[in-house]
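Protein in question filed below.

…
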Amino acid sequence: MIQLAIISPCYNEEEVLDNSAHRLDTLFDSLIAKNKISANSFVLFVNDGSKDRTWEKIVALHERSPRFKGLNLAHNVGHQNAIMAGMMQAKDMADAIVTIDADLQDDINCIEKMVDSYEEGYDVVYGVKVERDADPLMKRLTAIAFYKLQKMMDVESVFNHADFRLLSRRVLHALSQYSERNLYLRGLIPLIGFDSTTVEETITERKAGKSKYTLGKMFGLAIDGITSFSVKPIYYVMYVGIAFVFFSILIGFYVLYSLISGTAEHGWASIILSIWLVGGVTILCIGGVGIYIGKMYLEIKRRPLYNVKDFLD
């Protein structure tokens, strides 16, 4: 039997935390009764600088049962960094960990299948969504577009996989050697290279509260995912520049022909249009390159990803 740790990042989740803890408690009792996991397995809730009573709820759960542990971060560091904090805290405390969001929209019944896959010798088990009917239409469409964009940019990732996964202890220790500041775990973990497999899951609706993953945060994650693992956008900037140079040559030939033939018309509309078009593309390209420069700036500073305020063992 393995000692399992479930890592669950929380940001303003006071409304759903009691229900999620009860469901995980029931799951643990079932897995222990089946001799799938050891009795000292635990749940680690990571409070990512919540502004509500999330941490107070975690403290109360810990006082009620030692099965629930808590990690309180000093301030909000974001979803990916909160997951990393929990994994690094638990890497020497368990044989394997499962990361899952506190709303438990992912299918917790798949955790048993993940444990079975671990026993079969897999170090990484990804939860892959086969049905997303519980997600809003816009979220489903943008998610599919994002995965396809990642593939086009040669970013190695698992299609329809978010952050519901099992990792063995040796994967966690290998992951601890990656010190990059711009975390995108969905792209980073496949790079580690240990044996992996997938389990199919179905997304369900939240039991309470609202999702904290806004469209803006999803867009930011998408930008991080692409720019942290692919340099193709910079090449595309160069290709756009080449296209504009070629287009300007064609315009030059047309202007020369118009002057020779006497058909040239004086006007400002085409000039203004060209200025705005070229100027807009130029600014866009500079912005794309600037993102990479900004990421290098953050990496060079080597600031910590998070600071731990409290730990309930």
User: Anything to note?
Assistant: The chain has a mean pLDDT of 82. The beta strands are 4-10, 42-47, 68-73, 96-99, 124-131, 161-168, 196-202, 308-312.
